[in-house]
Design brief:
This protein is mainly α. It has 14 helices and 3 strands. The radius of gyration is 22 Å and the shape is elongated.
Length: 302
């Protein structure tokens, strides 16, 4: 694009972001809808305010061949938002036939494999992250955003703030996890965050941001490879493992739904397909499960 077009795109893009924020859209929605605008601009190499209906059809025809259905949906919704709230134009609906839905079950790590991962990393922050995410069934952002004030050691609960759908919940805090969280926090003593950014303890103590999500995901892959685990796993896999192991240990579906913050019981029911089933007290089962991990705290060089 020429400089004049780049300037016009920059102005429209900022108006798009501002409109999304005014409407109180979630951060993930803002990221997805703004990415949609960037992607179609790069595709045509021109400002998207003058695209024709045929242009849109060509774009989505190409997108369905190269991206997932969820990406196609997000792009269509993002562009529809752009037309309505930024350009004040009527959105001409682009019909896209949804492909047959694939029912793919995620890979699951065994408790021994999770133990190998925890003990196979040389960085304490990743070791404690893996234990925390797994032992409470947390999403990546829920784990990274944990604050000292969220830990209720008396009730052995953790307050998860603004989880998926901007909903709070309380989850069971296993005793072993509390011990390792305290030990890790003592290495940096940040006044608020448990997982602050920083390459060493001094940087983490004064950090203003949480640990980098992208760096964590790359390190997770590297740890898998280093301990010889070849399953397709990501940090989110730890949450699936937690749900599956709770089913295996006899926790009721309703209790699992509460712990994991699922809106729909069907989401929780997925875990019954990942393991064999058999309930008693949920807190005791979770603690017993986590206590089976033999964790050797890593010692990091300053």
């Amino acid at each position: 694009m020429r400089k004049a077009q780049q300037a016009r795109f920059g102005s429209l893009y900022q108006r798009h972001i501002n409109a999304l924020r005014r409407q109180g859209k979630a951060d993930n929605t803002i990221d997805g809808y703004s990415r949609a605008l960037r992607r179609i601009t790069e595709f045509f190499d021109r400002v998207p305010d003058r695209l024709t209906q045929d242009d849109l059809k060509d774009y989505f025809s190409s997108l369905t061949k190269t991206h997932s259905w969820s990406t196609v949906k997000v792009d269509r919704n993002g562009l529809q938002f752009f037309y309505k709230h930024v350009l004040n134009k009527h959105w001409q609906w682009v019909d896209i036939v949804k492909p047959p839905q694939k029912k793919v079950l995620p890979d699951i790590l065994t408790l021994k494999e999770i133990e190998r991962m925890i003990n196979g990393t040389h960085e304490r922050r990743y070791q404690v992250f893996i234990l925390t995410a797994f032992s409470m069934g947390l999403r990546i952002h829920e784990t990274l955003n944990l604050r000292i004030g969220d830990i209720d050691a008396q009730r052995m609960k953790v307050h998860i703030r603004l989880g998926k759908g901007k909903k709070d919940r309380f989850v069971t805090l296993p005793q072993a996890t509390l011990i390792h969280l305290r030990q890790y926090w003592a290495t940096h003593r940040h006044p608020d965050m448990i997982f602050p950014a920083g390459r060493n303890h001094q940087e983490r103590q004064s950090a203003t941001k949480i640990m980098d999500r992208g760096g964590l995901q790359k390190s997770f892959k590297a740890i898998l490879a280093s301990v010889g685990i070849h399953k397709h796993a990501t940090p989110h896999t730890l949450r699936h493992c937690y749900g599956a192991l709770l089913v295996e240990n006899g926790v009721t579906q309703r209790a699992i739904q509460t712990e994991m913050g699922h809106d729909c019981p069907k989401t929780t029911a997925l875990y019954t397909q990942l393991t064999d089933v058999t309930q008693k007290d949920t807190d005791k089962i979770i603690n017993r499960m986590v206590n089976r991990l033999n964790i050797v705290p890593t010692t990091e060089a300053e």
